[in-house]
Amino acid sequence: MITQIVFRADKSFKDAAMKKALYEGVTLKAVLYNALKLYVEGKLNFGLQMSEPEMETLDVTPRVQKKMDKIANLLAKI
Q1: Positive or negative: CA dihedral 26, 28, 30, 36
Q2: DSSP secondary structure of 24-69
Q3: What is the CA angle 68-74-78, rounded to 5?
Q4: The pTM is what?
């Protein structure tokens, strides 16, 4: 049985998706149908995803670095 799915999207978003699909030689219907199919098959997932934390370099005095090293050594023993 075939059914119809209707949903609202921002016009500029839809136009951009149609333009990209046309450039790739497919229809927007094919893009949406395949996304739905992959989602059902468990090959397309949505949910909480962790990204790599941003690292920041700090300049510290030798005294502070020595304390930080001591803390790191204590934590490594846990």
Answers
A1: positive
A2: TT--HHHHHHHHHHHHHTTSS--S--PPPPPP------HHHHHHHH
A3: 135
A4: 0.57
The whole-angstrom separation of Cα 71 and Cα 76 is 9
Extents of the domains making up the chain: 9-46
Query: What is the token pair recorded at 17?
Result: 């998706």
Question: With contact defined as beta carbons under 8 Å apart, do 21 and 27 qualify?
Answer: yes
Question: Whose CA is closest to 64, among 75, 72, 55?
Answer: 72
> Distance (Å, rounded) from C-alpha 28 to C-alpha 7?
14
Low-confidence stretches of the chain (pLDDT beneath 50): none
- Asked if residues 21 and 28 have their Cβ atoms less than 8 Å apart, the reply is yes
